[in-house]
Amino acid sequence: xxxxxxxxxxxxxxxxxxxxxxxxxxxxxxxxxxxxxxxxxxxxxxxxxxxxxxxxxxxxxxxxxxxxxxxxxxxxxxxxxxxxxxxxxxxxxxxxxxxxxxxxxxxxxxxxxxxxxxxxxxxxxxxxxxxxx
Length: 133
Description:
Elements: H1 2-5, E1 7-8, E2 24-25, H2 26-39, H3 65-82, E3 86-95, E4 102-111, E5 118-125
Antiparallel strand pairs: 1-2, 3-4, 4-5
């Protein structure tokens, strides 16, 4: 698996106990790469202007069924395009019952070449209606 996913600097950048740059590999590296795709808005990277996910477009849209479905599709299509080392099996988006500003994005994926489904829960924070006026 490490050969296919690779090994590299972690995101966010970190150092190990000896002060050298820490390295990430395996499932940890893959999940960090997926988080990087979801947290980067297209246009933020000058030399890769299309890289990222447009999740920030939904910050003010609330959590209606339609909005959650569009968010799910945005996450699925972004990961399909930018993370070829994983097969996205499902993307479930649901609001936190106790915090209306928090939405969970539950991504079930399988690393390519494996038969070991995994999941990544990505928290998405929005501004509820009526706030920020």
